Amino acid sequence: MHRRDAIRNVAILLGTAISASTLSALESCTGSAPKNYDLHKPETKALLAEIAETIIPTTSTPGAKAAKVDDFIVVMMNDCYKKSDQEVFLEGLKKIDAASQKQFKKGFMDITPEQRTELLTQIDKERVEYNKRKDKKEGDPTHYFQYLKELTLLGYFTSKEGATQALRYVPVPGKYEGCIPYKKGDKAWAV
Question: What is the pTM of this model?
C-alpha cells in the first residue's frame, strides 16, 4: 500500500472530510511536483509549527509540534501539490502574518497563544465564508487556510503521536467487535 492510499483510508476511517483539492493532491502524489524551496526556510517552518500547534495544541496528549506536523506539511506541499497551490499556500502564510500585524501590531510569532487562537478563528470564519459564497466557480483556488487545517489534521493523526496517544490504538487488533458501547469522552480508533 502506498502512503497516499493509507492516508486516504485513515481519513475515511476517522470520518475526516478532505477537500477535493487535497484528495487530488494525494492522487497525484508522485514526487514530481515542483519543489518550492521557500517552504524549507527556517522562518517558514517555524511559522508553520506555531500555526499547527495553535490548531492542535499540547494538552494531555502531544500537540502538532511534537508530531512534527510542520515537516509533514512541507513534504506534502512539495511532493503533492501543484505550483499554483504552493503559491496560494505561501501567500496565505504571509496573509496570516499581515493580519497579525494589523490586529495586534506584532507578527504571528510574537503574539500570545490566546491571540493566535483568536486570529486563526477569524481566518477560519473567513475560509467558511469563502467556501459558501454564491459566485464560486469551478476553477477558483482553494482558500489557503483550508490547506493548513487539512494538512495539520492529516499530519497529526497519521503521526505516531496522534495515532497512538490522541486516538485509541491497538498495535495488534484482536477479534472483530461490531457493536461496542460508546462512553462520552472515549477517543476515536486509530485502526
Answer: 0.74
